[in-house]
Amino acid sequence: MNKDLYNYIIGIADNSLILGQRLGELCGHGPSLETDIAGTNISLDLFGQVRSYFQYAAQVSGDENATEDTLAFLRIEREYKNVLLVEQPNTDFAYTIVRQFYFDAFHLLFLKALETSKDETLAAIAKKSIKEVSYHWRFSSDWVRRLGDGTEESHTRVLEAVNELWMYTDELFHQTEADKAMIAQGIGVETLALKETYYKMIGDVLEEATLPIPESKYWHKGGKQGIHTEHMGYILSDMQYMQRTYPNMEW
Amino acid sequence: MSDKEVKNLEDLFDARIARDEKIEPKDWMPEKYRKTHIRQISQHAHSEIVGMLPEGNWISRAPSLRRKVALLAKVQDEAGHGLYLYSACETLGVSREELYEQLHSGKAKYSSIFNYPTVTWADMGAIGWLVDGAAIINQVPLCSTSYGPYARAMIRVCKEESFHQRQGFEIMLKLSNGSQEQKDMAQDALNRWWWPSLMMLGPTDAESVHTAQSMKWKLKRKTNDELRQQFIDQTVPQAELLGLTIPDPDLKWNEETGHYDFGEIDWDEFWQVVKGHGPSNKKRMKDRVGAWERGEWVRDAAMAHAKKKEERKNQTKKAV
Amino acid sequence: MSKNWPLWEVFVRSKNGLEHRHFGSLRAADAEMAMENARDVYTRRSEGVSIWVVESNNITASNPENNGELFEPAADKVYRHPTFYDLPDEVKHM
């Protein structure tokens, strides 16, 4: 099997998987029915992408027992390669929105670049996902504007989330060995080239939202190497519960 | 208006309904018609959004990605259905916030079945199969009810719900064809959800206070007991197909009536749950109220932002 | 200022060639949000290709009490309908 390609796909997919899972936790608990429905739509888009990626990864893995579900549910924590940002909890609506906002900006730029990948399957998934993620970005950035330039309370809350989650943004651009190999082959996305545009996108919205751009340069990383925050174990024990409790069954 | 004039208007009104004419929001309607509709439509809406909670409980633990997206989409639909129904109710001059207030204060009721806990994955199957099955039996006749906005909401709801019951039945089918553990899980879920599902179709006709009036207004086309019988008759063969046993020793086919006879329903349990003492009443309300309260600052922020934007727009206009 | 999000009416064109039809209503703080919510609530199953949203307050509706004067005078103007006119059977298409 093409191990680099496999790891590359897993890296992309895990971001959508864990973020989709986090959003799924909120279904039924949103601030209004309309917002609840919108959040679930984003979650469903992400899971749809995950399934395409994992089906492809299962095929690339060469392991005939691998399926989208073995990849989603039966790895150990160290084997999940999502960035730390997406596993952060739904502390409140401000955290949920800012997490989404930080990720969507990256996700959109990333997919636009992935659309030109030499790997046709990845390019096709990217092409379809761009439309979904453009909408996610519109949704999350609109909400950042509303919360930032809303009431005093919403400003304070969203400012806290902007500052607290800021340290996880740099990791979005980090490259693993697999990433580097894929970039060299014209399959992977040169993430470093996206960085400037990313911070410009984020900065413009924050400015409109009357929120100061955080200045901290202390970055947290580890997710892409499988070293996660303490939240991750709980996400997995929830997500994997059925597959672990009742091994080798069909559902 | 004198009593006699009102009586006359009411007769004309009833005649319109009898002719299958629809009543629309701005039409004259008897106060009792308006109140009854607000009560029924809002109860229905509350049931949809409280109904999101027991199933929402399993979204994060769904056993496969396929099941997870189906469940998410289903629970999301329930939010949509709640929204359609609240909107229909709002045309009667009551706001969604007032209706929430009634729900949160315990004044308004919702379907009692959602006060039972979902303890295993098989409960997702049982709810889809039985609870949605019973709901559909209740809802299909409402697509031709007399109040236009309610009928239109129900048409949309029924169209979207067609996948819900299938989704549940498919889960049950997979479990029934699976390992012994899975079969046991399915049977256990049927045991726990069967009786509450029968109760869901409402008290017996003898006990039901609203039936006659509701029939006249086409809020109801069949009595609770008729609906219950219909549900049992259609569900028993499905259980046989699954190889599961319905937990009622008195259940048997009656050649003479052409229906299944069934055992005594525990109405004490029903009334206990209705009165707020079911296993999950408090948890459900806590979740609903919690979500609403935690969302307050968010809703306020959006309004404040909209107002600022509007003001800025007006200022720009003035400057020009 | 009311703190509750105002009500909006949603009109959706199911496909090009058809008119926008009233689909239902929803709550939103502003027009952008109303548009986004309409998309999320009313077109989850590819029901539409175009959406209009209008705040419900901005709709002026006729009052059913005036239905007599508004609509009944049209009832006896049968000459506005083709069936009013007698034609010989030989004229097949007109």
Automatic annotation (TrEMBL), chain B:
Q: Name one GO molecular function term.
A: phenylacetyl-CoA 1,2-epoxidase activity
InterPro entries per the UniProt record, alphabetical:
Aromatic_CoA_ox/epox (IPR052703), Ferritin-like (IPR012347), Ferritin-like_SF (IPR009078), PaaA (IPR011881), PaaA_PaaC (IPR007814)
* Highest taxon of the lineage: Bacteria
Q: Might you name a Gene Ontology BP term for this protein?
A: phenylacetate catabolic process
Q: Which GO terms describe its cellular component?
A: cytosol
Q: Which Pfam families match?
A: PaaA_PaaC (PF05138)
> Which parts form a coiled-coil structure per UniProt?
none
NCBIfam families in UniProt: PA_CoA_Oxy1
Tell me what this protein is called.
ATPase AAA
The encoding gene is: paaA
UniProtKB/TrEMBL annotation, chain C:
Q: In which domain of life is the source organism classified?
A: Bacteria
Q: Which InterPro entries does the UniProt record give?
A: PaaB, PaaB_sf
Q: Which NCBIfam families match?
A: PA_CoA_Oxy2
Q: What is this protein called?
A: Phenylacetate-CoA oxygenase
Q: Which gene encodes it?
A: paaB
